[in-house]
Amino acid sequence: MPIRPTQNNDTGMDRREKDLSFWQKVAVEVLWIICRGFALMPHFVRHTIFGVPIYWLLCYVLRYRRKVIMSNLHNSFPDKSEKELRHICRLTYRNLTEQIINMISQSGVSDQVLLRRMQFSNAEPTIAAVEGQNAVFMTAHYGPWEAGSTVSLAFKDHTFVAVYHELENKVFDVLIKRIRQHTNVELVSMKRMMRHFIDNRNKRPMILGLISDQNPTWRPNFHWYNFLHQWTAFYNGAELLATKYKLPVYYFSPRRIKQGYYVGTFTLIHDGKEPIDEHVITERYTKLLEKDIQEAPEMWMWSHRRWKHTPPEELQAQKI
Fold it and tell me: I need a labelling partner for 250 at 20 to 30 A (CA). Which of 162, 281, 285, 303 fits?
């Protein structure tokens, strides 16, 4: 079993663990044992014996965020029929079930097991292209987003910095971070990302892994992108870092082979040298993500309240 790096205070993990009460620490350990035991079960048990009832619970009993999912689908695919949208909705619940199981199934398993579940179609040329330099990898809540940090196992000469949002519940925050911790992964909170990169950019080469399709905090100066037939705001942290420090940017796109198994592809968005206008990097990212979603819409996390912000009136008046 490879040695996994210990977390430092910069990530916030040690701080949050120290803030836990005695019973919260007990809760973390109990949940970790449960997750670890689940991860050791055979594939059929995890994805079928447990997966089928979880799917039925989410889809037909809890109807988890059904209104949000259907509203997002209606707005994103105006040309699809109600029957088609309901079918995508059901498949979305299947994907959500699979990703919940995938996340728990990462708990403490070996690097070899993780690499069997997530393979890469063009890792070698990408590794050669970013050799010795920092880089930004942009991905989304598309397919196995929790398995994205498996990239760290392919890019062994880099530290993979997985940027995350802290959860309000301290117990689950510490637990999820423990599940996400793999060889060569460093977990850094979103609010610490810029400072962490600046402080460490001249040390061991880093790959900054950013899930960039989340709804950003409101700002009056948003740049709006035409995304899935809607004006949409995106985080621009990846672009700011890339343009300021001349970093190459790649889009990571996973494709489902079969239940629980995927292959990922790296697509160059910006080589770090090309003169580029503001917003172009993010625009290229949105187009690649949109293409993936249109090809396999059930793989995206439609339960996100993605379009909470209202664009300016002049944009709303334009036809998309």
Answer: 303
